């Protein structure tokens, strides 16, 4: 039995949501470690995934974090409070998405 395009999209969206909790842990770890390049990459991926699966707030917030991580070392340390604040906003938004997803699945 072949899946319809909508069934495929739904399955991919569920898989994306199932992995979001792990991504929250990764965001926290990267922020604590101040692993800026990996944090930029993770935010970029979250932004794309959010766009692909209709989580526009996630896309927006991930992009906002991404923008606070400039490439120079000096400016990175100066932007840490802003990066931390925006990363926490992103994590809170992911938590809301995960709670909504858990309620829908229940």
What is the string of SSEs from the N terminus onward? HHHHH
Low confidence ranges: none
C-alpha end-to-end distance: 26 Å
Helix residue percentage: over 70%
How many β-strand stretches? 0
**Radius of gyration (Å):** 15 Å
Q: Average pLDDT value?
A: 89
Plain-language structure description:
The chain is mostly helical and 106 residues long. The chain is 85% helix and 0% strand. The protein is built from five helices and no strands. α1 (5-33) runs antiparallel to α2, α2 (36-52) packs antiparallel against α3 and α3 (56-67) runs antiparallel to α5. The longest helix is centred in the first third of the chain and has 29 residues, at 5-33. The radius of gyration is 15 Å and the shape is elongated. The two termini are 26 Å apart. The mean pLDDT is 89.
Spell out the blueprint of helices and strands.
Elements: H1 5-33, H2 36-52, H3 56-67, H4 73-78, H5 80-105
Helix pairs in contact: 1-2, 1-5, 2-3, 3-5
Task: List its salient traits.
106 residues, mainly alpha, 85% helix, 0% strand
Quick description:
The chain is an all-alpha fold.
